[in-house]
Amino acid sequence: MERIRARAVVLSYLDYGEADRIVTLLTEERGRLAAFAAGARKSRRRFAGALEPCTLLSAQLVQTRGDTWRLDSVDVLDAFPEVRAELSLIARGAYAVELVRELCRDHEPHPDLFALLCRYLTALARKGAGALAMMRFELLALALAGLMPRLDRCARCGAPPEEVLLFDPEHGGLLCNGCAAGTGQRVSNEAALLLASLQREPKAVEARHSVRAEARGLLTRFVSHHLGHRPKSLDFMREVGVDA
Question: Between residues 61 and 163, which one has the greater pLDDT?
Answer without folding.
Answer: 61
